[in-house]
Amino acid sequence: QLEPWYIIKISIMTEELTMVYEELNASNQKSIEHFDSELAKIRAGKASPSMLSGVMVEYYEAMTPLQQVANVSVMDARTLIVQPWEKNTLNDLAKGIIDANLGLNPQNNGEQLIITVPPLTEERRRDLVKKAKAESENAKIGIRNNRKDALDMVKELKNEGLSEDHFKNAEVEIQNITNASSKDVDGLFEIKEKDIMTV
């Protein structure tokens, strides 16, 4: 017969473990979403508005994200159109895009900017895959750091009286969550690699 206080203690510990797992999942989700947004900035030769997502332009003497002062659309697989809200900002927009070092050369026709996305060379594709790989490593480092934080929390619970069995199960659960998140990162990387290497 277990003492009532012990049953209550176990149920509190179980709740706390559940919170540790939820927090770990949430932190990993953030790492994966950040990785996904970094991948979106690595262009695979096809025109996409997200290519310009990191571009800042001078707008009334303040550096402003391009998307806040212009509409970016795709004309075809190789062409982007940047339509400013105000025509007098065309030159500033063009300068911002050139300064962002994306290898894009906007043409100003007085109404809008037309950007032809150059096809990628084999070497450039390999560089982009390397860049994507580096981003995937960063995401995995984030996930491993999250695992360490979760394990630290569980060790804390062990000091507060969490049983050895529960502790071992928690370690296994944390590793399973970590493996699943790392697998998600690998999956996103493989899709991106294929996208980059497909001519």
Main pleated sheet:
4 strands, antiparallel
Q: Could you give the order of the helices and strands?
A: HEEEEHEEHH
Runs with pLDDT <50, length 5+? none
User: What is Rg?
Assistant: 24 Å
Number of strands: 6
Query: pLDDT average, as an integer?
Result: 91
Q: What amount of the residues lies in strands?
A: 5-15%
Separate helix tally: 4
**SSE class:** alpha+beta
> How do the strands line up in the largest sheet?
3-4-6-5
Shape: elongated
Spatial separation of the terminal alpha carbons: 69 Å
Summarize the structure in words:
- This protein is α+β, with helices and mostly antiparallel strands.
- The protein is built from 4 helices and 6 strands; from the N terminus they run αββββαββαα.
- Strands 3-4-6-5 form a 4-stranded antiparallel sheet, with helices on one face. The chain has a two-stranded antiparallel sheet with strand order 1-2.
- It is elongated, with a radius of gyration of 24 Å.
Q: Gist?
A:
With 199 residues, the protein is α+β, with helices and mostly antiparallel strands. The protein has helices at 4-41, 90-99, 122-159, 164-197, and strands at residues 56-59, 62-65, 70-76, 79-84, 107-108, 113-116.
Give the topology:
Blueprint (H helix, E strand, L loop, with lengths): L3 H38 L14 E4 L2 E4 L4 E7 L2 E6 L5 H10 L7 E2 L4 E4 L5 H38 L4 H34 L2
Antiparallel strand pairs: 1-2, 3-4, 4-6, 5-6
Helix pairs in contact: 1-3, 1-4, 3-4
